[in-house]
Design goal:
Blueprint lengths: L6 H10 L5 H18 L3 H8 L2 E5 L3 H6 L5 H4 L5 E5 H14 L5 H17 L5 H14 L1
Antiparallel strand pairs: 1-2
């Protein structure tokens, strides 16, 4: 379970993902590791750390669109946010893509593609990694 979640967020989270998928546990572990890391930092340490990171929505924004929740306070609540280094943010989206259910799978595919595009633009992915991801897409979906 995500350490920052209350019952409401846990219910939303579980509506997004297949709990039996191996990537579900990997995603939870990644998020909890970084929640723990950011909670243990001083404000100064966190500021320096966050300069090389992105803010990630644990329950994807796409879920809220699908269930017609437009309240930004719920979507952007600190319980639903984690700061991830760029490479871990990409990994989080890969895990989400792999274990997403039908309700949000199309949106998770688009989010992953946008993350890949961003990484390519800043030189964060090699051709080898890109080819591996393409083969994995073809094999898994």
């Amino acid at each position: 379970m995500i350490t920052s979640f209350n019952k409401k967020y846990l219910k939303m989270f579980n509506e997004c993902f297949d709990k039996d998928n191996e990537y579900y546990a990997k995603y939870i572990n990644l998020v909890n590791t970084h929640l723990s890391k950011q909670n243990s930092m001083s404000d100064t340490q966190y500021y320096k750390y966050s300069e090389r990171c992105d803010v990630h929505h644990i329950v994807p924004r796409a879920y809220f669109k699908n269930v017609d929740i437009i309240d930004k306070e719920i979507i952007n609540d600190n319980k639903n946010l984690v700061t991830l280094p760029y490479d871990k943010h990409m990994l989080a989206h890969w895990y989400m893509y792999q274990c997403s259910n039908k309700v949000i799978h199309r949106s998770m595919t688009l989010a992953l593609m946008l993350m890949l595009k961003k990484a390519i633009k800043v030189g964060g992915l090699t051709d080898t990694v890109i080819n591996q991801l393409i083969k994995s897409f073809a094999r898994n979906r």
